[in-house]
Amino acid sequence: MLYLISAAAGLIGGIAAVLLFGGRRSRRKKEQDRRKIEFSKLVLSAVLLTYFAGFVIGVRVVILDPSQLGVFLAYVGTPAATAIGFYSWKAKAENVVKIKQANPTATEGMPVDLNNIQP
Predict the structure, then answer these.
(1) For residue 9, what are the contacts with CB-CB under 8 A and spacing of at least 6?
(2) From 81's CA, which of 27, 32, 60, 92 has a CA 20 to 30 Å away?
(3) Closest by alpha carbon to 96, among 74, 118, 80?
(4) For this UniProt entry, which segments traverse the membrane (predicted)?
């Protein structure tokens, strides 16, 4: 029962984060002044929020049963490495294009090949 409550709390927290960061503003001036948050950052925030809720549950389980440490470490490492690696690769690809556009004379002759960007 505690796991169901924790899962529901994580889901509610993820939805709250998406609504908090992606909520619409009623005033047009605030919308113009404020920079729009990218959708990938909203998704990453929601995933990380639910991930940390699961992390807290995992710590409690490992405290109660230390034989579950291997499972807990896999839970911690796999999504974190995947999410951080993907986000870094995406940011690098976007920055390559921005640098090329911002410095056309300094990057003259350097092609931007988005298909071969290495992580």
Answers:
(1) 53
(2) 60
(3) 118
(4) 6-22, 42-63, 69-89
Q: How far apart, in whole angstroms, are the C-alpha atoms of residue 7 and residue 57? A: 9
Amino acid of residue 39? F
> Do the Cβ atoms of 107 and 99 come closer than 8 Å?
yes
Tokens (6 digits) for 65: 């049963």
For the whole model, what pTM was predicted? 0.43
Cα gap 57→10, rounded to integer Å: 10
Distance CA 43, CA 78 (A): 17
Read off the pLDDT of residues 74-102 as tens digits, 9 standing for 90 and up.
Answer: 888 887 788 788 888 888 888 887 887 78
CA atoms within 13 A on the CB side of 9: 12
Question: What does the radius of gyration of the chain's CA atoms come to, in whole angstroms?
Answer: 20
Q: Give the tens place of pLDDT for each residue, 57-68.
A: 889 999 999 999
